[in-house]
Amino acid sequence: MKEKSGRITASNENEADIQQNLSSAGYQIVTRMKNRPEPTGLKITGAKAAEGSLNNNVAVVAERVLNKDSVALKKGIVQPVGEEGLSSWQLLCDEGGATHEQFSPNPLNYMATGISSDLQTQVERGIEILKLDVDDVKVETKVFFRYENFMTDQWSGYTDKVIANILIESSESPEKIAELKELALRSWAAGEGLAGRTEVIPELLINGDHWDTHYATKGSVLSPVSIDNGQVLSSKSTLPETETFEPGEDLDMSGLPGRKIDPFEFVVVAVCESADDPKRPYLHKITARSLNDNYLAFDLYADDSYGYKGPDKAPTSLDHLTAGTALCLMSQLTVNSMYFRDVIIDDYRVEQQIDYRDENYMTADMAGFADRVTTKVIVKSQAEKEDLNRFFVQSVRCCFAGEAFLNETEVVSDIYLNKKLIG
């Protein structure tokens, strides 16, 4: 391998040599970016919203961050397409496990964060639409994941179930709160995308001339605490306390990947609540943790305050969900590059867009949808196309988040009024 201007330009040296030749960057976990995502194989498309609807396509580009302590460190730059006043954000992502405590949230943290916060937003919008008097809202989420045939040629990943419970403190009647639940669930685009079958279009792109400008870079996470304009955007936390379910036990990660676990099952728990910001009323604080050894809880923030004055303070809920989906696929590319060890792959990235929409926006008939997932996996390699396609197909098949959109996922949501289950 030869190094030029800090770029990866050839394929024959190992990861340690690559890292030696690259300059190192220090990252926050969450950073506001000046530039929007810049895909090379994906065409970003905005959708023209019909009258009374809100279209919110979200694009993300995910790339590796080379780090001697973690083969799974990566970053994603994410932004809604065509929406005024919504920033581009860079999210750092890592896996924990047998070797180290994770340096930043894992992909499924971001996924669960987006699921929880998007439902919280729909509940808060419903309160505004129905003119209800509500003192407090919280969403508790538990997502069940599973690998089958781990580290074999039949290796697959699944999202088996999503529990997303709504907790309300209010003097309103149970009938009014039941009406609120119906409206919130109907308008919950993340939930609709998971519960139904969403069109998923994955494609493998091999080589090309864009590796001069898009490539893996060496780096590390400076701190678990991210701050933007005085707003804390990430920090380490503890497993959130839940009232409506038991979180469960950690999955034993010792001896992986050599140790065979089948089925390989674990959960991610998230709790979302208002950040109580009067200027950004749809700003949320979400605490999420994947229940695996050496996986940490993180506090993250999401801002869905569309149409309010002032700059956005955090990524949107659907930014988190979209980035989490792309970053999940990046993790599968990483572990499958170790499984297909005879297939030499120099670099890879994921470019993705998920198309969301709300019909009859901010009315009692509001309904949310996730229409399409478009995914490009871009690989730099001199390996045979057939071998690269096997690597690609299995990586896509292993992606928990992608499978959650592709197939029907069981979604269960109960609502509690003043700690009492009403439906």
Pick out its properties.
alpha+beta; 22 strands; disordered N terminus; ten-stranded mixed β-sheet; globular; 423 residues
How would you briefly describe this protein structure?
This protein has about 425 residues and is an alpha+beta fold.
Characterization of the model:
With 423 residues, this protein is of the alpha+beta class. It has one domain. It is built from seven helices and 22 strands. The strands form three sheets. Strands 3, 4, 5, 6, 7, 8, 11, 12, 18 and 19 form a ten-stranded mixed β-sheet that branches. Strand 21 (415-417) and strand 22 (420-421) form a beta hairpin. The radius of gyration is 21 Å and the shape is globular. The protein starts with a strand and ends with a strand. Residues 1-22 have low confidence and may be disordered.
For the sheet with most strands, the description reads: 10 strands, mixed
End-to-end separation in angstroms reads 62 Å
Query: H/E element string?
Result: EEHEEEEEEHEEHHEEEEEEEHEEHHEEE
Question: Unreliable stretches, pLDDT < 50, 5 or more residues?
Answer: 1-22
What integer value in Å does the Rg equal?
A: 21 Å
Strand percentage, roughly? 35-45%
Number of helices: 7
- The 3D shape can be described as globular
Structural class: alpha+beta
Oligomer: single chain
Helix content: 10-25%
Please tell me the total number of domains.
1
Give the strand tally: 22
The average pLDDT value, as a whole number, equals 91
